[in-house]
Write the structure tokens for this entry.
Amino acid sequence: MRRTLFAALISAAACALVLMSLSSGTALLPQYRPLPEVPAALKSRLAGYLREQGMAPEAYVIGKFRDHDIVILGEHHFIKHNVEFVQGLIPRLYEAGVRDLAIEFGCRELQDRADALVTADTYDEALARWIMFQWGSYWPYVEYLGLYRKAWELNRSLPAGAPKFRIVSLDYKARFDLVREGMPPVQLRAVWHKGPRDEYMARTIIDEFVKKRKKALVYMGQHHAFTRYKIPEYDFEKRSFDGLFAGSTGNLVWRKIREKVFQICLHYPWTTTAGARTYDYPVDGVVDSLMKESPVKRLGFDVSGSPFGELGDEGTFYALGHKKFTFGDLCDGYIWEKPFSEYEGCTVDPLCITAGNLAEAVANLPSAAVKAKIKTRAQFLEKMRWDADFRRLYPDLE
């Protein structure tokens, strides 16, 4: 990301072109920022590694359970094919003897309801929506709800007496209804009334799986998933660096079980050092360039301990505070399924928000500013679509 300034300028240009097309009524072809030319020697080395060691993403994830008890899959959030990929893993996990999918997107205090949902004779879509709503009214997405349905479908197909597959909720219900504009940090403790989320989710993983000697796939946002890597605590507005955070869920689990946990990152754009809303291709675009030319378009591959682990990226936010940041510091493995130009956001389920629960849905939004703006169900649903609009966020990535 030595191209950080260039990337910021081309992003602004792309946005300007979109605005011009909207005002004129003329549809323009996407103006993608260019991918880099990877040096021939490096390209040959990395491409050779992918040919020899790359695997279908499904086989890659399942294979990691041969040597690890906990596999953490980290995502950007709201990317349609990422969640569908995890849905498709559920029967494969069961076949491999892994009977638990642990997710960030649920309340541990409602685990009995989640267990009842996926083991019932008849699937209760309304209960699935209610469970997700209790964790976050701002998460009304079809694909995440589909995780419960896929687990239920698997359980219905099992012979009598067979162990059931579970969707295990890692988080707790925060008191976002208490959030007000300008709340001092001391008052925010009432919102996070059971303590820091990462600590709570790590305890859930340790209690539910590590102590019981059970294997599990953990699915969560990548910034919770880091194991060995420490993320910068950086204020872009003040340009102040407050150190490296070593308390993510993955960090805490790794300190408990070390090499028995393996962390895989799903492909997404990286924030740059130029600002909180700037972005670029990960690791200077090397992975995207290779995959554009690769005959195999979906791959899982090791990063740590492989030639990919040596790649650097000086312009990424992830490099802040690190003397020499490398890809291998960030994650153990990586999954690439398609180019960014083909990414889609998740689908809003309009039945999640009703006239009867709208007031509660708004009250439980994390942002006081957003709460003040939303007055109708239509506005709420449109805000959720806006949040998940990948092309709005990253219009010029190829």
Summary: The chain has one domain: 4-393. The domain at 4-393 is CATH 3.40.50.11550 (Rossmann fold). The two ends are 16 Å apart (CA to CA).
